[in-house]
Amino acid sequence: MKYNPNEIDAKWQKYWAENQTFAAKNNSETRGETELSEAKPKHYVLDMFPYPSGAGLHVGHPLGYIASDVYSRFKRHQGFNVLHPMGYDSFGLPAEQYAIQTGQRPEDTTHVNIDGGVDKEGKQIAGYRKQLDKIGFSFDWVREVRTSNPDYYKHTQWIFIQLFNSWYNKTTDKAEDVSTLVAVFEKEGNANVNAVSDDNIAVFSSSEWNAFSKDEQEKILLQYRLTYLAETEVNWCPGLGTVLANDEIVNGVSERGGFPVIRKKMTQWSMRISAYAERLLQGLNDIDWSESIKESQRNWIGKSVGAMVTFDVVPTTNNQQPETISVFTTRPDTIFGVTFMTLAPEHDLVAKITTPEQKAAVEAYIEKTAKRSERERMADVKTISGVFTGAYAEHPFTKEAIPVWIGDYVLAGYGTGAVMAVPCGDERDYAFANFFKGQNGMQEIKNIFANVDISEAAYGSKDNVEIANSDFLNGLDYKKGTQKAIEKLEEIGQGKGKTNYRLRDAVFSRQRYWGEPFPVYYVNGLPKMIDTQHLPIILPAVEKYLPTEDGLPPLGNAAVWAWDSIKCSVVSTQLINNVTIFPLELNTMPGWAGSSWYWMRYMDAHNENEFASKEALAYWENVDLYIGGSEHATGHLLYSRFWNKFLKDKGFAPTEEPFKKLINQGMILGTSALIYRVDQRPDVYVSKGIVEDFYNSEKNKEAAEKILNLTGTLTPTFSKIHVDVSFVNSSDELDIDKFRKWQPDFLHAKPIYEKDEKFIVVREVEKMSKSKYNVVTPDDICNEYGADTLRLYEMFLGPLEQAKPWNTAGISGVFGFLKKLWRLYFDDNGLIVNNDEPTKDNLKSLHKTIKKVAEDIENFSFNTSVSQFMICVNELSSQNCHSRAILEPLAILVSPYAPHIAEELWSQLGHTTSISEVAFPAFDEKHLVETNKEYPVSFNGKMRFTIELPLDLTAAQIEEIVMKDERTQKQLDGRTPNKVIIVPGKIINLVG
Q: Which family does it belong to (predicted)?
């Protein structure tokens, strides 16, 4: 009976789908109160939310999915009720851009990308779902979610409304309903409110609050709400017509499309994630994540302890309004070393304090800076640039006039957007002061450190510091100096101690179409939430996905996009009267909205009334194992933790942290194929060896002559271009005919071959990508070798968390292993499993494997498990083992990795139910205890034969047995040895 993987794969994938084999049951749904003690323990395994692109899956994508699937199947074998769901993060900019380029609806392309089919351009799309099913994942497809479905984003809208209706009480250290804040305002005003809020909120009494109009009250509450409207400095991409996050920008242009990005102020929805900075920081101590990911988050949150200092701006005219510059510093002990001040070019004060003489220079600098992203400005530590504003600030203690500059190394969103520059203690300030030395009032660098030479560089250390030239701080160290400086600043009312965080509030608006609509309409320019009973507010159809002619977001093109407050429905925009019918929000939510809570929806995916029931949330709690890419180290993981903590505060989420354990899988790299093209003759392509010979002096003449024949130059230069790896065989030979037919540009290609008429490509390991033509699809592997071969091979490539190159040549070895496994159970005539008692060697091979595989899966060392399977099958084959007592448990061991063949073996062994929940074999240590020892028997130090003896024999007993052995008698040939050396368990040596 032959191993036929395609037949077996199809059979069992159909069985799993029809029987919903992997549909997890919520404890509360399936068991009554009396049966709870018998309930299976839960285990929730989650893969990071995939975006379904039209390019489909390549073999790099399933790596994490296979790992999580092995673990999920193992946990089922261990008796856990496993939730292992899958869905799609199906809103987003890529689908919208594709729609703009091809004239298709993003909902249509998204649907085809997931379910497969032919798009409107005639392209055959495999479909994510079919590709995933082909690999045999044990996903609970009953709970599938798609963020672009109204029944999903209804709940995202609901969460947004909860955030809008909440504020962060620093006293209770949690989010609370805005009604509790209003109650305080009504009773005592806001003077004693300890909240995370906007800065510089005017103080008002209870009587003043009660006298405010409703609109005035709403404007004040917006300064406290956890999601709020504010004018924010953003990364605006005119080419994409949307705001981009920092991680969507590379080298000053958009990651998608390569469009220029500028800094611009826009009214945006923002989320007050900064309220949770300390909890996000402390929560890292309670979760099992890699230290590198934790450190990335710590750096992003950026906690620093210091002081807020206020500098008064020196008026330049008699009628100038008093202005102050607030600065956060971690080194208040260096305040007497302030030489100048620097504002971010975007700082609100710049326009107010810049003198007429400096106005042109300042405006030109601001325009230039707007073209650089924040990330670019942060990374560029070499370029020094800035402009003097013409204004001065007054030192709080010395009353000295300090010049105020602007510089793009200061960012508006970090701290206060202003720096008190102490060049003697900071390298960047030092470089700036030296660069502009002698210009526009830039003073000499002051040295406030005793016994420190700053003639060549700043002294940035906090250690071994003795403050000098600093009045009341003289002689103090860093700690005492900091404490004393804060005390004095508080005394004069120009500063106070403060803990600051780099983490900024998250912009939550996108000027695009394909995203969650906000459940918001506007009355007198102020946002109003639509009552939750009327959700979802469904994304309307539009003809154009670009911004409107007057610059409004794409939803400005919608004909039916207004809110009728009487009928409580969406109506035509032509009916807007701002009395009963009002405009709806035109922005949509960002890509991270739907992915910031999706793991909870899986717990109760079909609940129409709640995002998940209390019972389901209480049962599943949070994710036990989360597997995904390290590229989400900050953005997605921080936002998810923030939303989870908020929902915990509001009594919905049962735990503080969403993901107990996190593993980042490494990348599978592609092996690209590149060929040399002659720059002077773009139709001439040269084989690898010829180019290498050209640069080798001994062979140069011959190679040059070959090239000369086609190029007419003895000094050509070469460029490397990618070719499709499918045109290249395992010997790195390019099929020139396929290459010529590939693209019109190559139809008349003139190749220069090696001596043996072969054209050899250059191989390079790099990221697997469609643009590099090095993509290998899992479908091809599954079709040729079966899904189990793909699964085993991906796990065999190397440690899960490391990057590793894909090499198709290794696939055949894994396929050969599966055929060898099959032959333990079958020969050409059928099943050969018997009921023979297993031998000691059989049991030893099996239990070695049980122990190794169980340990490896728990430690996520999947590659060494595959090696152990190979060792075990080789040993059992050598032992001619066909015992059911060995082969039944072996099938279970293999099942997490190669479930299709395991199910077939289990079925052929006579079982009528799935192998997926059969108990994992128990390890018995006694089978690994060695009872015998194979001794080498030596004569005068030379080993002549071996003999196997029980380990518990004494030296005398061993000697008696050895001397009687006929092989010994033959070696001695009648002689009596002078000495017999025996060390039990080690050696036997006969001397003389």
A: Belongs to the class-I aminoacyl-tRNA synthetase family.
**Which secondary structure element, helix H or strand E, spans residue 624, and what is its range?**
strand 623-628
More confident of the two residues 256 and 405: 405
| Cβ 293 vs Cβ 270: under 8 Å | no
How far is Cα 93 from Cα 592, in angstroms, rounded to an integer?
Answer: 11
The number of CA neighbours under 13 Å toward the Cβ of 719 is: 10
Three-state SS sequence of 146-167: ECCCHHHHHHHHHHHHHHHCEE
Q: Sorting pLDDT into bands at 50, 70 and 90, what band is 715?
A: confident
Instruction: Supply the DSSP symbol for 512.
Output: S
Q: What distance in Å separates the CA atoms of residue 789 and residue 793, rounded to the nearest whole number?
A: 6
The answer to whether 26 touches 620, Cβ cutoff 8 Å, is: yes
For residue 34, the model assigns a pLDDT of 38
Q: Which residue, 374, 291, 375, 380, is CA-closest to 633?
A: 291
Q: Do residues 54 and 98 touch, judged by C-beta distance below 8 A?
A: yes
Beta-carbon contacts of 479 under 8 Å, excluding residues fewer than 6 positions away, are none
Q: 53 pLDDT exceeds 90?
A: no
Torsion of CA 848, 853, 855, 857, to 10 degrees: 180
Averaged over 604-632, what is the pLDDT? Answer: 94
Q: Residues annotated as binding site? A: 770
784, two tokens: 């040729």
Instruction: Check: CB of residue 447 under 8 Å from CB of residue 454.
Output: yes
Write the DSSP symbol of residue 551: S
For residues 262-266, average pLDDT: 80
Q: What is the dihedral of CA 664, 667, 668, 671, to 10 degrees?
A: -170
Torsion angle of C-alpha atoms 400, 406, 411, 413, degrees rounded to 10: 70
For residue 40, pLDDT beyond 90: no
Specify the pLDDT at position 56. 84
Please answer whether residues 450 and 459 qualify as being in contact, where contact means their C-beta atoms are separated by less than 8 angstroms. no
Predicted local confidence at residue 377, as pLDDT: 79
- For 808-865, what is each residue's pLDDT tens digit? 778 999 999 999 999 999 999 999 999 999 999 999 999 999 999 999 999 999 999 9
- Residues belonging to the binding site for ATP are 770
What interhelical angle do 778-785 and 811-825 show, nearest 10? 40
